[in-house]
Amino acid sequence: MNEMAIEMSGVCKSYQFFNLQDIELRVASGTIMGLIGPNGAGKSTTIRILMGLVHQQRGEVRVLGHRMPEEQAAKRDIGFASDDMRLYDGMTVGWHMNFMRSIYPSWDGGYAQVLLKRFGLQAEQKIKGLSHGQRVKATLLLVLARRPKLLVLDEPTTGLDPVARHEILYELTGVMADEGRSVLFSSQNTQDVEQISDRITFIDRGRIIDSMDKEAYLDRWRRLRLEAPVGVALPALPGVIGIRQTGRLAVAIANEFAAELPNAYENSGARVHAVENMTLEEIFVANVERSREGVTA
Amino acid sequence: MHTVHTQMNRMFLISQADKRPMYLQIMEQIKERIAVGDWAAGQAIPSIRQLAVDIGVSVITVKRAYLELERESLIVTRQGKGSFVSSDAGVGTRIREQELAQQLEKAARSAAQLGLTPKDFERRIRASFERMTEIEKEKESV
Predict the structure, then answer these.
(1) Of A41, A102, A196, A257, which is most buried by a Cβ count within 10 Å?
(2) Which residues contact residue A201 at a Cβ distance below 8 angstroms, ignoring those fewer than 6 apart?
(3) A118 — contact with chain B (CB < 8 Å)?
(4) What is the ipTM of this complex?
(5) What are the b/e assignments for B42-71, b being 16+ CB within 10 Å?
(6) Residues of chain A neighbouring B11 (CB-CB closer than 8 A)
(7) How many domains in chain A?
(8) Do B4 and A195 touch (CB under 8 A)?
(9) Do B4 and A30 touch (CB under 8 A)?
């Protein structure tokens, strides 16, 4: 069961203005990994390294058991899609489908037809006549219909309308019907990541900040709505990364919430009005703000 | 052979307008199915992976929902056989009881914050109950 689809350890890559440092990333078979982080955090570089498109200066990369970048044959079983993938402008969607079928024995023609309909595309359309969103959909169709063991998608839902976005998310979770397949995708859309990922990896400024089980990750964070009567100073408590107070009302954000935390505030004389779960979007913002301010918890 | 999903399989509704985490939304919708009897006592229910695929959410989220439901003894998972609704015939009523208990507890907390005595609180509940019965009667007479 715990076979690894992707293993990266100690991976480093330096550029003039950017360093990817000590990337440790593991994706088990049968799971979906969501990669999130602000612009320029290193998500695409990480993806390019594991696809063997960019060579790391240090560290080990194994994809489906193959060393990258040395064993590029692994790509036969990987479906990779990114924004800068080129389709042939003068050719039709159908031509591309035939082309893929001729290369990949795993090509599923029936599924390709289903996706064509679902994505609202037509086989006779030439690529140059497609909108940006339609091109993205065509690219994803060509990758999904191969039914690869591993899908690696860089921002698959960016630029798509809500219906297309839902279709893509639905197809990606559908991949999980087969326990031997895996998905790694990056996204700016935290809702997408929250909905379909089994694990989340958070990258900021070239480093992995967190990489863990999504449910456990969401569960660690809470927002506490507090009331501090006049004369009561809210104490600094472990697991709390920030408090904002206006008048008597305060909001505390905990990144390592423990069941005792509300009691600890009550014991200090404050009142706890609510303990709320946070969305991944809210966690994302709190996390990045904290790292930008250089505050240590 | 690969199965092709249809929109029909999307039988659970995960809403972003709902502030609760997804696993709680899934738990609630499973409870609702059990409470109304669509998923009867002892009946086999979808596997974790199957339900995740059907709803279009991660396996880990459905797994969490199932674990919590097991903890509440509303479903059971048997190794190698799958998951089932608890065979206890009163499982539907138990869910409604649980809902009531939670809401009463919440109301009791609000009452305590207002400084109500248990007697006052009791009076308020009685009044609410009477108002509800009244409204229902009016609806019937229309």
Answers:
(1) A196
(2) A25, A33, A34, A35, A36, A208, A210, A211
(3) no
(4) 0.85
(5) eeebbebbbbbbbbbbbbbbbbbbbbbbee
(6) none
(7) 2
(8) no
(9) no
Query: Which residue in the set A173, A199, A277 is minimally distant from B53, CB to CB?
Result: A173
Task: Give CA–CA dist A288/A13, Å, rounded.
Answer: 22
CA distances from A117 to A88, A91, A167, B94 (A): 21, 19, 11, 45
* Same domain (yes/no): A125, A148: yes
Q: Which residue shows structure tokens 């994505």?
A: A119
CB atoms within 10 A of CB A12: 15
B72 min Cα distance to partner chain A (Å): 19
Smallest Cα distance from B123 to chain A, Å: 25
Residue A60's domain is classified under what CATH number? 3.40.50.300
Asked if A177 lies within 8 A of B50 by C-beta distance, the reply is: yes
- Give yes or no: residues A201 and A226 share one domain: no
Q: Look at strands A182-186 and A150-154 and give their pairing.
A: parallel
pLDDT tens per residue across all 297 residues of chain A: 458 999 999 999 999 999 999 999 999 999 999 999 999 999 999 999 999 999 999 999 999 999 999 999 999 999 999 877 789 999 999 999 999 999 999 999 999 999 999 999 999 999 999 998 899 999 999 999 999 999 999 999 988 988 889 989 999 999 999 999 999 999 999 999 999 999 999 999 999 999 999 999 999 999 999 999 988 889 999 999 999 999 999 999 999 999 999 999 999 999 999 999 999 999 999 988 887 776 444
Start-to-end CA distance of chain B, whole Å, equals 56
Q: With an 8 Å Cβ cutoff, are B5 and A174 in contact?
A: yes
The parent domain of residue A192 ranges over 4-216
